[in-house]
Design a protein that fits this description.
- With about 375 residues, the chain is α+β, with helices and mostly antiparallel strands.
- Helix content is about 30%, strand content about 20%.
- The protein is built from nine helices and 15 strands.
- The strands form three sheets. Strands 2, 4, 5, 6, 8, 9, 10, 11, 13, 14 and 15 form an eleven-stranded antiparallel β-sheet that branches. The protein has a two-stranded antiparallel sheet with strand order 1-12. A two-stranded antiparallel sheet has the order 3-7.
- Strand 13 and strand 14 form a beta hairpin.
- The radius of gyration is 22 Å and the shape is globular.
Length: about 375
C-alpha cells in the first residue's frame, strides 16, 4: 500500500512498544539450538568481569533522547576502500561480551590460527597442521577510522578467502565471508570493563552462516567471550525511522518505507507503507524541536502522524500491527537483526545506535 498526500501532525496517542524487547530475543551464538547447532563455550573469566560491570551500570533502560551526528565522523585515517566495502551489504548483527586477553599486536598470529581452525572444521574435524596451505586464508586486520570518540577501541575486520585452484600467477583470492567488530561511542560501558578485556561489543557478519558459526566458536574459545544474535524491537525500529529521516544526504533520497506484519492471520500478511522522502522530511521538521537531537516524544508523534495518515486513507490501524522493517536513504534494518548501511557520511551515526543496542543486550 502506498501513501496518498502528505501526512501532517495531529493529536498524539501514546506510543506502544509493538513487540518484545530486544533482550528477549537473545540467543548465545555458542548455545546449541535447533537453528544453529553450535556448541556453547564457557565464559568463566568474563562472568567475573560482567558481575563487576553490572554493579556499576543501570541497564534495561531505553534512553529518553538520542543524538544524531550531522556530519561524517569518519577519522582521517579511514581507508576509503574498506569503508566502501562495508556499505550496501546485508549484515547480520550480534552482540559480543568483552574479549579476554585479546591483543591488537597478534592479529597476524590470530589469522594463522583461525585459518587452521576454519580448514579443520570444513574438513569434518580431520587433523590440520597449522601453517600448511589449506586452501582457506583468514585475515584479521584493523579497520581504522570507525571511532565515535578517542576512547573507542579500533574496529577489526575478519575475512575468509578461498585460494584460487587455477595455476595462474598472481591469481586473486575470492572473499567468501566477512565480519567486523566495533564499539562506537561506548564510553559509559568501557569505563567499567576490567583492564584485561577488550570491548568490541558489536559484530556484523556477511556470508554463509556456517562460517559465522566457525568464526564465532573460535573467538569464544580463544577469548572467553560470548556471541548473541542482536534483534531489533519495533520500538527501536521506530527510533531508526525517525532519526534517519531527519538526516541530510547529498545524493538521491530514497522513499522512507515501513513494513508492518499483521498478527493472528492464517498466512503472513505484510503491509508496506512508503512515504516520499520530501514528505517524510517535511513531517519530521515539524515534529523535531532541537536539531541534532531526537526525543522519545518526537518519535511517538512522528509515528502517530504516519499512522493517522494511513488510517485516513485505508481505514487500517497500523498501531495494531507490528513494525518489522525500516528503509531510508541512510540504511535499512529488519527486526530479525539484519541491516544494510547505504551512506558513508552517516556510517558512524548508525554504528553508534547499533553499539548502544548491543551493549544494552550484554548488560
Amino acid at each position: 500500500m502506498r501513501r496518498s498526500g502528505r501526512p501532517s501532525p495531529r493529536g498524539r496517542r501514546p506510543q506502544q512498544d509493538m513487540g518484545t524487547p530486544d533482550s528477549l530475543g537473545m540467543t548465545p551464538l555458542g548455545r546449541k539450538t535447533a537453528e544453529t547447532g553450535i556448541n556453547f563455550t564457557s565464559t568463566t573469566r568474563f562472568s567475573r568481569g560482567l558481575t563487576f560491570i553490572r554493579t556499576h551500570t543501570l541497564f534495561g533502560q531505553s534512553p529518553a533522547r538520542r543524538i544524531i551526528p550531522q556530519t561524517s565522523l569518519l577519522q582521517e585515517n579511514a581507508d576509503p576502500q574498506k569503508i566502501a566495502f562495508l556499505l550496501r551489504k546485508q549484515w547480520t548483527l550480534y552482540s559480543v561480551t568483552p574479549m579476554y586477553k585479546f591483543s591488537y599486536g597478534n592479529l597476524k598470529e590470530y589469522s594463522r590460527l583461525l585459518s587452521a581452525f576454519v580448514a579443520a572444521e570444513k574438513q569434518k574435524g580431520l587433523a590440520v597442521e597449522v601453517g600448511n596451505d589449506l586452501g582457506i586464508k583468514v585475515t584479521l586486520s584493523a579497520l581504522l577510522g570507525l571511532k565515535g570518540t578517542d576512547q573507542d577501541q579500533a574496529a577489526i575486520l575478519v575475512q575468509i578467502a578461498s585460494r584460487s585452484q587455477l595455476p595462474v600467477e598472481n591469481a586473486e583470492d575470492r572473499v567468501v565471508w566477512s565480519g567486523w567488530f566495533c564499539c562506537v561511542s561506548g564510553d559509559d560501558f568501557l569505563e567499567n570493563v576490567p583492564e584485561d578485556f577488550t570491548c568490541l561489543s558489536l559484530f556484523l557478519a556477511n556470508g554463509a552462516e556456517s562460517y559465522t558459526t566457525i568464526v564465532g566458536t573460535w573467538f569464544q574459545k580463544t577469548f572467553d567471550c560470548c556471541f548473541s544474535r542482536l534483534t531489533i524491537s519495533p520500538l527501536n525500529l521506530a527510533w531508526m525511522a525517525a532519526m534517519w529521516t531527519g538526516c541530510e544526504v547529498d545524493s538521491h533520497m530514497a522513499a522512507t518505507e515501513l513494513v508492518f506484519s499483521v498478527p493472528c492471520l492464517p498466512q503472513t500478511l505484510d503491509i508496506s507503507y512508503a512515504i516520499h522522502p520530501e514528505d517524510a522530511k517535511a513531517l519530521w521538521d515539524t515534529v523535531q524541536k532541537t536539531p541534532g537531537e531526537v526525543t522519545q516524544e518526537e518519535v511517538n508523534l512522528f509515528m502517530d502522524c504516519l499512522y493517522s495518515h494511513f488510517h485516513r486513507h485505508f481505514k487500517i490501524h497500523l498501531s495494531a500491527t507490528r513494525l518489522v522493517k525500516v528503509s531510508t536513504s541512510i540504511a535499512s534494518a529488519h527486526c530479525d537483526g539484519t541491516i544494510k548501511i547505504l551512506h558513508s557520511k552517516h556510517l558512524i551515526g548508525v554504528l553508534m545506535l547499533l553499539t548502544e543496542l548491543a551493549i544494552s543486550q550484554i548488560q
